[in-house]
Amino acid sequence: MTETFRAYYAEKNDHQVKSQLKTLPIETIESGDVLIRVAYSSINYKDALAAKKGAGVVKNYPIIPGIDLAGTVVESETSAFQPGDEVIATSYDLGVSHHGGLSELARVKEEWVLPLPKNLTLEEAMIYGTAGYTAGLAIQKLEDNGLTVEGSPVLVRGASGGVGSLAVMMLSAIGYKVVASTGNQQNEDYLKSIGADEVIPRVERESEKPLCKREWQAVIDPVGGKHVGDIIKRLKNRGSIALIGNTAGIDFETTVLPFILRGNSILGVDSAETPMKIRKQIWRRLATDLKPEPLHSIKQVISLDEVPDAMEQMLNNQSSGRFVVKINPDQQ
Known about the structure:
alpha/beta, six-stranded parallel beta sheet, about 25% helix, about 25% strand, globular
């Protein structure tokens, strides 16, 4: 076993976060049941915040960011996994209070690891990553709450981002009409190429009335912020909004009327602590019916050395699709 490995390492001194590529001793990574040689990771908004801003995302520094990883088992202290197994680990405490996936090696708990599903490559697993898993989980929750292909359109907010792009693609793949909302209208052609039927600007306040014209049967929302209330009052009867993120803030205002007069629902989507039974179910769908044909079209494959620039692009809202980080060039 190698005595050192390369990783993107974030440290905090005097309230300033400094991140850089480092060669670290193997003892750096915590105890865990499964040692994985990471083939691919990805960059999520949460990773960029952890590495560049701090912003309350990371519990303790120093940390190797990266809430996603896919690779091959090197050592295992559990009978559930054997050396050579191809596996995925996403969310839980990865990259938050446990060293994460932007690293050549990662040691994680057995209960965080699942086998790579059939019909999915390690690279494809990281095109999805937590973003794709969360989008898939949101679709499942909406369908469990009554979303049907025969109904009216589904709105996807922040459609140019990782979660948004994947949600658009997945919904289109299983036959939904998709309305993509974006703050950058230059992405219209891109969004239509991955499955959006209609592209609209950011949804903002249309009226001070507590209820407005019914437009969408459901919404996937990785944006959050004050306009959530404006979206809720435009849902169809028995419509639902799946809340995933808070890039636009954590506060919004609404009234009880959409809920008691139209039977609308707010569904919280927590991808970090999903029980493994549900996690496996969603990953099976990501490898089968939810797997969109143009999946590879949204990826931008980069190296560990290119991670800092990619994070800056993400924080400055200058990116679209998914950054996939190829960690070990000899793995596919």
